[in-house]
Amino acid sequence: MTTINRDVIIIGAGASGLTAATELKKAGLTVAVLEARDRVGGRLWTDDIDGAMLEIGGQWVSPDQDALIETLDDLGLATYERYREGKNIYINAAGELSRFEGDIFPVPVQTEHEIVSLIEKLDVLVAEMDPERPWDHPRAKELDEVSFSRWLESQTDDQEARDNIGMFIAGAMLTKPAHAFSALQALLMAASAGSFSNLVDADFILDKRVVGGLQQVPLLLAERLGDDVHLGQAVRTLRWSDAGVTAITDGLEVNARRVIIAVPPVLISRISFEPSLPRRQQQLHQHLSMGFVIKVHAVYDTPFWREDDLSGTAFSPYELVHEAYDNTNFEDPRGTLVGFVADEEADGVFTLTAEERKQRILTSLSHYYGEKALNPVVYYESDWGSEEWTRGAYAASFDMGGLARYGADLRTPVGPISFSCSDMAGKGYQHVDGAIRVGREAAAAIIATDAK
Ligand code: FDA
């Protein structure tokens, strides 16, 4: 066992932990970043799969994500636009395909009216919410007691309108069924992106990608930190008191004045705290759980859908793959589609064999893009549910009532312990931008305390 002494320990080398470590080091403090995996990046992972560069985790950057954009600029990383020329596709409950342009799906006029009205109502509620303090919304408790699906039912009888609006938050964002999270949690998801309108606008929320992959953010941050990043060091035990902390891994013992725990909140309880965390934290961490989505990558010799005047953007709350996009890499002659299978649909296909699952998923893609979609040259499913150090995707959200009850204490430090993770962010919640924001905030609070 090697023992080292530092000012601050950071547990977790995701975007959040590495940002915090970078800020602390800039301020002259010594740091040790302890990472369980043998790589940095956590939910950012760009890899070569059968000769194709795939973004196994997070990838898109939207224009409001200024903390992430500043980091990309600082690291000298270039971005490029998602391909969006041509028509989008929508499949309705009867399985009928239509092509469309703009944001609103080609649905009957009355349904379109209901969708627009729901978006307007949600935008009004979101405008009343400070994403940093959703529990202060004037109707926070009431909205946290009702599931998003029930809330939608209380607003409209139009099933197709409800299915579409539900999909944007449920399958597409929190990756839980709309009956499993509250209306307040749904509003936070929208407020974190500025408005509900932003969230349903694929050209906004899925605007750009990073040339060479988004994992370069943690990779380059870690490169700057050099020997301060320790891989393969899962923190098993954290001893703490007002005098300081000791983090113990299988091979290292690190003593410090402070610690930032930068891991998904569902993994905090994997660490043995000596003494235990206070009852408030022990309780609140039990009220968060990870969503679940399979990110499916299918690479073809060419982006064949473009020849058919299709953008590659496709949606249907009634398809196994509820949304799909052209995800072709920068200046790559091959074409890549990315699709998503969420929550209960993902549970369902994981009861099948790998080959049956692949066929079901490719068949769903073929409903949007035709038979050519059935034969990719590379096929890969990102399965974060089986990753020990993540356990789901994209991120964690509260159960019913949990946000109003516990949200305010999610990032409240306990003695020398601070918490930081995208899943605890307000603006940029569940996104890399949020990870960076809360990482900066946790570091700034420690630096400010030191300056006193
Ligand atoms: P993250 O989980 O990345 O890092 C935590 C780190 O802690 C991990 O490296 C883990 O190994 C480590 N750890 C855990 N327990 C430990 C222990 N006991 N000891 C030591 N280390 C420990 N976002 C976005 O902005 N745009 C997008 O397009 C997408 N898309 C997307 C797709 C998919 C499939 C996923 C899974 C996620 C996204 N996201 C996204 C979300 C985004 O990737 C995510 O919000 C951030 O990367 C999270 O960064 P954090 O640093 O907060 O946690």
Automatic annotation (TrEMBL):
<keyword id="KW-0560">Oxidoreductase</keyword>
<protein>
    <submittedName>
        <fullName>Putrescine oxidase</fullName>
        <ecNumber>1.4.3.10</ecNumber>
    </submittedName>
</protein>
<dbReference type="InterPro" id="IPR036188">
    <property type="entry name" value="FAD/NAD-bd_sf"/>
</dbReference>
<comment type="similarity">
    <text>Belongs to the flavin monoamine oxidase family.</text>
</comment>
<feature type="binding site">
    <location>
        <position position="340"/>
    </location>
    <ligand>
        <name>substrate</name>
    </ligand>
</feature>
<dbReference type="GO" id="GO:0050232">
    <property type="term" value="F:putrescine oxidase activity"/>
</dbReference>
<feature type="binding site">
    <location>
        <position position="16"/>
    </location>
    <ligand>
        <name>FAD</name>
    </ligand>
</feature>
<dbReference type="InterPro" id="IPR002937">
    <property type="entry name" value="Amino_oxidase"/>
</dbReference>
<dbReference type="Pfam" id="PF01593">
    <property type="entry name" value="Amino_oxidase"/>
</dbReference>
<feature type="domain" description="Amine oxidase">
    <location>
        <begin position="16"/>
        <end position="447"/>
    </location>
</feature>
<feature type="binding site">
    <location>
        <begin position="35"/>
        <end position="36"/>
    </location>
    <ligand>
        <name>FAD</name>
    </ligand>
</feature>
<feature type="binding site">
    <location>
        <position position="235"/>
    </location>
    <ligand>
        <name>FAD</name>
    </ligand>
</feature>
<dbReference type="InterPro" id="IPR050703">
    <property type="entry name" value="Flavin_MAO"/>
</dbReference>
<dbReference type="InterPro" id="IPR001613">
    <property type="entry name" value="Flavin_amine_oxidase"/>
</dbReference>
